[in-house]
Amino acid sequence: MIRLSHARASFYLAAVAGLLAWGWALYAVPYLALVVGVDVFFIAYLVRTLAAVPSFDAQRMRENAGHRDEPLWLVLIITLAAAALAVILVITVSGQKDRDAIALVMTLASLPLAWATIHAMMAWHYAHMYWRKADKEEADSADGYHGGLIFPGGKPPGARDFLYFSFIIGVAAQTADVSISSSRIRAVSLLHSLVAFTFNTVLLAAVVNVVVSLA
C-alpha cells in the first residue's frame, strides 16, 4: 500500500478544499469565485501544516520521509502558479474603478497566504530530503539518512527546525545559522532563494500598485 507524505496529503486535501470553495463561490459570489478558491487552498494547507508541527518531532519526520513525496519541480510549478494568480488578481481588482472592498481585502490576503504556503511546502521538502534513506556515499550519518543540514545544538531536527530554515530563506533569501553540507540541498536552497527573492519583489510591487491605485 502506497502511503503519502504529510506534505503530499496536505496538498491534495487543500486542493480539494479549494476546488469545493471555488465551486460554491461560482453560485454564491461569482465575481469572487477565483480568489475564494485560491485563498481556501492556501489556508487549508497552512492549517494542516501548523496543526502537524507539535507532533512532528525528529522520529515522526523520519517515518514520514519514507512515504511518497511530490517532486520539487511539481511543488514549485503548482504553488508558484497559484501565487502568480494571487498577484494577478490583486493587480486586476485594485485597478478597477468600481472595485469592491471585500474583493480587494480577499485578494490582498492571498499575497501573504501564498508567500507562507510556498515556504511551508519547501520546509516539508527539505525535511523529506534530510530524512530519506541514502546510499553509503551520500549518507551524512551512520544510520544511513541523507542529512545535509547542520542545526545548532546538534539535536535531530523536527518540523519546527525545517520551518525555521525554510522561512529564513523566505524572508532573507539566504540561510542564517543552519549550515548546508549536502550539494543536493544546496542546489535546492539556491533555487528556493531565487524564488523567494523574486516573489518578495513581486509582492512589494503589487502592494505599491494597490497603494497608488487607492491614492
Describe the largest sheet. 2 strands, antiparallel
Rg, Å, rounded: 19 Å
Class by SSE composition: mainly alpha
Widest β-sheet, arrangement of strands: 1-2
Helix content: 55-70%
Let me know the number of strands. 2
Could you say how many structural domains there are in total? 1
Beta-strand proportion: under 5%
Order of helices and strands: HHHHHEHEH
Molecular structure report:
The chain is mainly alpha-helical and 215 residues long. The chain has one domain (6-214). Helices cover 70% and strands 2% of the residues. It is built from 7 helices and 2 strands. The protein has helices spanning 6-28, 33-52, 58-64, 72-94, 101-131, 159-172, 183-214; strands at 149-150, 179-180. The radius of gyration is 19 Å and the shape is globular. The protein starts with 5 loop residues before the first helix and ends with a helix.
What labels describe this entry?
70% helix, 215 residues, 2 strands, two-stranded antiparallel ribbon, 2% strand
